[in-house]
Amino acid sequence: MKPIFFVYGFGLVLFLASCQPSSSPEADIPTNPPAIDYEGEKEAIMKVIDGESEAFWNKDFEKFASYWAHEPYIRTLGWWQAGGVTVVSGWEERSARTKAHMEESPEPNPTANKVRRENINLRIFQDVAWLTFDQYGEDTGDSLMDMPGLSRETRILEKHNGEWKIVYVGWLLEGAGEE
């Protein structure tokens, strides 16, 4: 009877020892995320915002798509007087709609990206950033893709493979004469 008790007792000791957390002092020290290079990240984010707008108005779909995360959770929510409320869910729908708009109005409109952005409010975290800004655009005559006057804009970006990508766009086009 004693050998069986010894085997069970020894097994229990081994089991309990394997359940103990690491006693390494390093295991209890939380690690801080690396410091954020705010100015460098701000520059990279604003290049994404500028580049995506330029590609949109120049009707360059491939370049436009390069600034977006191609994920089912991306969103666009906007309002303008001519079109009302626009809600787009997921990259599949976003890409299809943008391609269709670019095919319907294929002439590049480089003057449309001559916008002024003011009241920029930017928050940058390790892998997510959000910003809001007021955007003032010119009336270029492109009724399908023009955004003249004041537009209140929101962007959320995520880092994907070390690059900032857009995952949310919100806009409210107040229009001309609102400066």
Describe this entry's structure for a reader.
There is one protein chain. The chain has 179 residues and is α+β, with helices and mostly antiparallel strands. The chain is built from four helices and six strands. The protein has helices spanning 2-19, 38-57, 61-66, 91-104; strands at residues 75-80, 84-89, 116-124, 128-137, 149-160, 163-175. It has a six-stranded mixed sheet. Strand 3 (116-124) and strand 4 (128-137) form a beta hairpin. It is globular and about 60 Å long. Mean pLDDT is 83; it is low at 12-17.
Estimate the helix proportion, in percent.
25-40%
Major sheet: size, sense and barrel closure?
A: 6 strands, mixed
Average predicted local confidence, pLDDT: 83
SS-based class: alpha+beta
Span between termini = 93 Å
Radius of gyration equals 26 Å
Beta content? 25-35%
SS summary, helix count: 4
Draw up the topology in text:
Blueprint: H1 2-19, H2 38-57, H3 61-66, E1 75-80, E2 84-89, H4 91-104, E3 116-124, E4 128-137, E5 149-160, E6 163-175
Parallel strand pairs: 1-6
Antiparallel strand pairs: 1-2, 3-4, 4-5, 5-6
Keywords:
179 residues; alpha+beta; six-stranded mixed sheet; 4 helices
